[in-house]
Structure formats: structure tokens, C-alpha cells
Amino acid sequence: MPDVFADLVGQDEAVAELRRAAGAAAAVLRAGAADRAPALIAAGAAGETAPGTGDTEPGALDPSTGMTHAWIFTGPPGSGRSVAARAFAAALQCTYGTGCGECPGCHTTMGGTNADVRMVVPEGLSIGVGEMRALVLRAASTPSGGRWQVVVIEDADRLTEAAGNALLKAIEEPPPRTVFLLCAPSTHPDDISVTIRSRCRVVPLRQPPAAAVAEVLVRRDGIAPDVAQWAAAAAQGHVGRARRLARDPEARKRREAVLAVPRRLTGVGAAFDAASALIEAAEAEAEASVSESDATERAALETALGAGGTGRGAAGAMRGAAGQLKELEKRQKSRATRAQRDALDRALVDLAGFYRDALTMALRAPVDPVHTDTAALAGAGAQKWDAEGSLRRLEAVLACRAAIEANVKPRIAVEAMMLALWKG
Ligand SMILES: [Zn+2]
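^ thats the input. predicted complex w/ zinc ion below
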């Protein structure tokens, strides 16, 4: 059985650091098992020796051993930030302190059922302060399994300012057995506040090479090598996206529709049509991904609220119920918006890959194309547009992504992009 780090593709340095840290954490537990609660040294003080923690104190952590209370995993989407955080959480709960993949600590963490590991996966556009306060409170309790309380916050860049402040307080004075694992695209102040960053150790992940992604698709998912290679290249280092492309015919169809866009841009009308098609495809994809869970959640809440109840107190209960249903609808709407943005962004990344291929071909750069299946089309574009025209088109796609990120209405940004792609 492979250990918990096996799925972390092409990240040898990060894995080595996490293994060291897990070993150090296990040593802290062993030393502290005597009777004294172990004291970790906060990351902000890493490199300095806290006063009075000479080498005589049992259970105290020497910062050079690599364990600390708060970590940030950074890297481009699909590089495996949350995979790394989960694997590290498992290694911390591992009976052997290695992330063996076989013991109950590893198993329950990887399966999402470990009572001392909480994964926060924001579904909407932001993580609010209420959610964060509740989390911090629970994280302060003694770990029931006797090891660590681990809180994994995926997309920590979506913390609201107030939520960030609540988290910061917990990271500044961490309970002795609590570990926070944050995931964010980068340590840029737009993604994570400077004060939180200063309290965390950063584990940078890189975009894994296509060969490494293909290898894991073959080994773990049993995908045929030629399909794995194509999917890994087309997904541009995004492991989850590569797996979806290799396995899901719908995902392949959507990608093909996106890559047909450059061919379809024959005039102004066609450009607006292409914009509508792209937006509607993203909406349909998002709708498909959230509608099932929306219905399940609503049914569960209605059951919990005892919908249809009569008798004394029912009227008051119904008023409370209406509030809760409204709250749920708000959350679902936020999640749907997020799903639409994500779907649209995936399409734009595919499109950017196409124009990038045209650019590298126009420059005769010795690099492999992103989309091998549209390489001929990109080659024709390269001849027609030359390097400059290809670059302008690539920039138009990137500008569209930036505009949407800056909250320009997606339809307007996409229409502007399509016109720019058509005009060159
Ligand atoms: Zn284990």
C-alpha cells in the first residue's frame, strides 16, 4: 500500500520537508508522553530559540526539526495544495508518525472521518467570520485521538477580513496540540494577509511536469498510457483536471467546444454568438455540478425542520424555518456563482493554451504544444497571425480572466475578449 504522500505528484522537495516535520511532531508526542504538555515554537519565532527552552525541556520542539503550528501550502491550481495538506494531516495522525497509509490514523484522515482533522472547503465566494470562529473554538479542544487537532483550510485566500482576524488570533497563540494547514495560490497579500503569512511556514508546490501527472494517472487510476499523456498535457499540470479529461466524456466534449472557438470567429455576430455559447456552457456545467447537492441539502433541512408540522409552536417554528431556508438559499446561490466562475475559468485556460501554442509555433520555440489535438489549427493560426498577432490574442484571453477576477460581469468580459480575438 502506498503511503499518504504517494498522490502528491512531482513535489519531491515539499514531501521531504513534510516527512521531516511529521517525524519531528511524532518525537514531540513521544517526549511529551511523560506528563508535560509539549510546547511548539511558533513559526514566527523560527530560527530563534525561545528563552528558557534549552535542550533540557522534554517535549519542546527545536525549530530546526521542522514542526510548527501553522503552515501555508501555495501553488497554482491543481498542483495539489489540498492533497498535500491532507497527506500531512494524515502523517500527523499516523501511529508511526510517517504517514504509512495503513494505520487507523492514516486511514481515517485520508477517508475524511478522523475526529481530530477538520477540512474547511469553502463552497461560496468567501469564508465568513462565523464559520471561522466556530472552527477556532473547536480546534482548541484536546485531540480525542491523543495526537494533534488539525484544521485544514482550503482556499484560505477566500477568507473575509474578519475571518482572517479570527484565524490570526488562534495562530498567534496556538493551543499546544493544534495545527493549522492553509492552502492558497500564493503568499501575495491579495491571497493571504501579511500578518498571517508571517506566522506560518510556507510550503511552495510547483506545477507538476506533464510526465509526472501522466505517470500517476496510469499508476493510480489505471488509465491507458497514451490517454494519460494526452490528458496530462491538455490539463497543463492540473492533476484533477487531467483525470477528469481522461475519464469523463462530457469534460472532453466541453473542452472541444472551447477549442473550436478560434475557428468560429468569422465576424462580429459570430464573436457575440461564441461569447454566449461560452457563458451558457459554463452555466450548464455549473448547474450540473451543484443542482444535485442543492436538492439534497434542501430536503435534509426541511426534514430537520419538520416541514408540515402542526400544533402548538408550529407557527413560531415555521418562522425560524423560513429564515434557515433563506440562509441555505443564499449559500447555494453563492456556491453556484463560484461553480460558474470556475467552469468559465477552466474554459479560458484551455483557450489561452491554444493561443500560447500558436505563439510558440510562430516563434519556432522548441516546446511541446499544450493541445496536441489542435496543434495543426494552432499552426495555421501562427502562419496567419504571426507571433505578434498570436501574442495579442493570448493577452486578450488573459485580460478576460483578470477582468472577471476583478468582478467585471463575465458576459461583458467574454464579449470583449471574443471581439479582440476576432479583430486580432
Ligand atoms: Zn499511518
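The first strand starts at residue 70 and ends at 74.
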